[in-house]
Design brief:
By secondary structure, the chain is an alpha+beta fold. It contains 13 helices and 14 strands. It has three domains: 83 residues; 240 residues, 2-Layer Sandwich (Nucleotidyltransferase, domain 5), CATH 3.30.420; 90 residues, no CATH class. A six-stranded mixed β-sheet has the order 12-11-10-9-13-14, sandwiched between helices. It has a four-stranded antiparallel β-sheet with strand order 2-3-1-4, covered by helices on one side. It has a two-stranded antiparallel sheet with strand order 5-8. Strand 11, helix 3 and strand 12 form a beta-alpha-beta unit. The longest helix is centred in the C-terminal third of the chain and has 30 residues. Pfam families: DNA_pol_B (PF00136), DNA_pol_B_exo1 (PF03104). This is DNA-directed DNA polymerase. Keywords: DNA-directed DNA polymerase, Nucleotidyltransferase, Transferase. GO terms for molecular function: chromatin binding; DNA replication origin binding; DNA-directed DNA polymerase activity; nucleotide binding; single-stranded DNA binding.
Length: 506
């Protein structure tokens, strides 16, 4: 599968001249294995951003290369950015595979070497054997897994450690209906381990002796583990058995998954790659979770599965002052939830009853996240009622964190604005304002002559003047700001509606 990398010409360190095509070709030859004769051509595209090392009229060079090149960036001496490297993106664009869709795969053979944890793995000799299906079938059911955990901060290492972990698997998830999931197709996993070295002063570092009796009486599905490594390994084995398509969590991208992967790396859990579908021996990016590479490392580790974060989705679909699970449970699910802070968790391990209640709280969080997912699916697909013509919207109660601007470009008012070029930049308000001030001054003089102030009559006269509008803008004037903005929005809306009707776009 051929790659087509694109490099931006820049100045060399030793000179102030732009590197030419031959110099960039030599650089690619030294770093691209099994390169063939490079057919470099310029792409007439202006740089979006002018930088000191980039010419104002900088052009990109298209360089074909073999499929064996792993996509390592060229040393930044002659080319600053190398684009078009991922083979998957190139084929997606060529085959029109934009968005989830059914595929028609021809001429496939079973793979002899398995590179993933999938049950069925096949390979094709030619990328052209993979095409988009002619007929769209119904969306298949997806396997979803909801994940929540409880963590504590180790007083010595000052790192977050997992003490309780729960997951709920739904094998009959509906990605289109958005209805309430049935409990008959659900399975759950609840794990807990003793605090061990993470226990602080005055806290038990082992399980109480009567914990098994408490578990048998109130939470039989809860499984105890000797340490954190054994608990995570057991969880990863269950993930491999469930093989979920979608992993769901609340603030999973920002905290849960990052903590889980970092603990796998710290404890050397060999089955960490079960969190994704690709078999891996080492962590991508050496398992660094610093800012800038954290999101990339998490995405690589989850290759083959979709991570759905209800914390992020709720920000897009709901209007709330805060998006914590406690607040959304109260406002969206009408269920009260009690917050348990990480610094308070060690105290819960002093009694068997508290340990079971803590695990029940974690399991309830899983169920709340699953219900919130169903709620967001139905909310996102619900068609909003259209505003009636001439409607004046009443102010909505609540706290606005940002400025709100409502522009209804589908009613009669914008049409009038465009037709008559009505805008604060085109209408002459000066003469109208002068007339209003004269009338106001005359009304004040009459009240003084009469020896009494009749504020009501004076206000009526001023109000009559205020109802008068300035003349319609002259046709020779250029289009104002407001009509131009409205026209642009309407045109873009038409283009988007036309694109949605095309088959190749999803």
């Amino acid at each position: 599968m051929e790659r087509r990398a694109k490099a931006v010409k820049r100045k060399a360190k030793e000179t102030t001249k732009l590197a030419n095509e031959n110099e960039i070709a030599d650089r690619f030859k030294s770093e691209v294995p099994n390169w063939r004769k490079l057919n470099i051509k310029e792409i007439g595209r202006r740089a979006k951003e002018v930088k000191p090392w980039k010419a104002k009229e900088s052009k990109k060079l298209e360089v074909p290369s073999g499929a064996s090149w792993a996509g390592k960036p060229v040393k930044r001496r002659y080319a600053f950015e190398v684009e078009g490297v991922p083979r998957e993106e190139t084929e997606y664009l060529k085959r029109g595979l934009m968005g989830p869709c059914w595929l028609d795969i021809r001429g496939f053979v079973p793979s002899t070497v398995h590179l993933s944890h999938c049950k069925i793995e096949v390979s094709v000799q030619n990328p052209k054997s993979v095409k988009r299906a002619e007929e769209e079938a119904e969306a298949p059911p997806v396997v979803t897994m909801t994940l929540k955990m409880k963590t504590v901060v180790n007083p010595k290492s000052h790192k977050s450690e997992i003490v309780s972990l729960c997951a709920v698997c739904n094998r009959d998830g509906d990605i289109e209906g958005g209805g309430v999931s049935s409990t008959s197709s659900m399975q759950q996993l609840s794990l807990v381990r003793p605090l061990g070295l993470a226990a602080g002063e005055g806290v038990m570092n082992t399980f109480p002796h009567d914990l098994n009796n408490e578990i048998a009486a109130h939470m039989p599905q809860l499984k105890t583990n000797p340490n954190e490594r054994a608990m995570i390994s057991r969880f990863m084995a269950q993930v491999g058995a469930w093989d979920p398509d979608v992993i769901v969590g609340h603030n999973a991208w920002g905290f849960d998954v990052e903590v889980l992967l970092s603990r796998c790396k710290e404890l050397k859990v060999g089955s960490w790659d079960r969190l994704g579908r690709l078999k891996r021996g080492t962590f991508p990016g050496q398992g660094r979770f610093e800012n800038g590479v954290k999101d990339w490392v998490i995405a690589e580790c989850l290759s083959g599965r979709v991570l759905c974060d209800t914390y992020i989705s709720s920000k897009e679909l709901l209007r709330e002052t805060t998006y914590s699970l406690t607040h959304l449970s109260a406002t969206q699910l009408k269920q009260k939830r009690v917050d348990i802070e990480p610094q308070d968790i060690p105290v819960w391990f002093n009694a068997s009853k508290n340990i079971v209640q803590l695990c029940q709280h974690t399991l309830m969080d899983c169920q709340l996240v699953g219900r919130l997912l169903d709620k967001l699916q139905s909310t996102g697909r619900r068609e909003k009622a259209k505003y009636s013509g001439g409607l004046v919207l009443e102010p909505k109660k609540g706290l606005y964190d940002t400025f709100i601007l409502l522009l209804d470009f589908n009613s009669l008012y914008p049409s009038i604005i465009q037709e008559y070029n009505l805008c604060h930049t085109t209408m002459n308000w000066s003469a109208h304002h002068a007339k209003m001030m004269e009338q106001k001054a005359a009304a004040g003089v009459r009240s003084n002559i009469n020896g009494e102030e009749d504020d009501e009559d004076a206000d009526d006269e001023v109000q009559e003047v205020g109802n008068d509008l300035p003349p319609i803008p002259d046709e020779s004037l250029s289009t104002g700001v407001l009509p131009r903005v409205i026209r642009t929005i309407i045109q873009r809306r038409g283009v988007v509606k036309k694109m949605l009707k095309e088959r190749g776009l999803t």
